[in-house]
């Protein structure tokens, strides 16, 4: 079964860091780009960023709201994508989702989400 | 690129046909996807490339459009279709979403 499972969420104080993981199974992880999204309480979906597969350089793109604070990386040997979040702000409070990214064909597999709460 | 969905909310009955519109602030060719999200769940891909039905999605869902104007239609609403629907443009970064359309039971 193709599956993504996020982990690492929790309560963190403003200014601190947190790293989320997205563990894939059921497909060849290294062949795919991966994206991260978030959804603040009661709000819509927001794209956070994206990492290409190694075949396409493994480079990243980010939303302006997280550029310079968040970093996406991947470990293809472990089938894990990471979202490193630094200098967290209260407005980063959200459910964070990872998804398999088919580029112009959309995000076809999503994780169940992990909740990040930034509060003092 | 800004995406504007209309309506923001919609009340309909089982068996109704409904249409949701997504307008882009500039042309995005056919690089548009539609997602369905139910409360407490992850989004689900319904349509990509504006009109291609994702595998496993019922044929009562359909999409159309190109350039700046797109629609998602559901031909005969079923109880499980009451959810929030989002469009997403895949033409350029950042990959923006519409604000969502909440489809409620009348």
What does this protein structure show overall?
Chain A is mostly beta strands and 120 residues long. Chain A has strands spanning 3-7, 10-12, 18-25, 33-39, 45-51, 60-62, 70-75, 80-85, 94-101, 107-110, 114-118. In chain A, the strands form two sheets. In chain A, strands 2, 4, 5, 6, 9, 10 and 11 form a seven-stranded mixed beta sheet that branches. Chain A has a four-stranded antiparallel beta sheet with strand order 1-3-8-7, with no helix packed on it. Chain A is globular. By secondary structure, chain B is mainly beta. Chain B is built from no helices and ten strands. In chain B, strand 5 (44-48) and strand 6 (52-53) form a beta hairpin. Chain B is globular, with a radius of gyration of 13 Å. The relative contact order of chain B is 0.34.
What's the gyration radius of chain A in Å? 13 Å
Task: Report how far the terminal alpha carbons of chain A are from each other.
Answer: 39 Å
Strand content of chain B: over 45%
Strand order of the largest sheet of chain B: 2-10-9-4-5-6
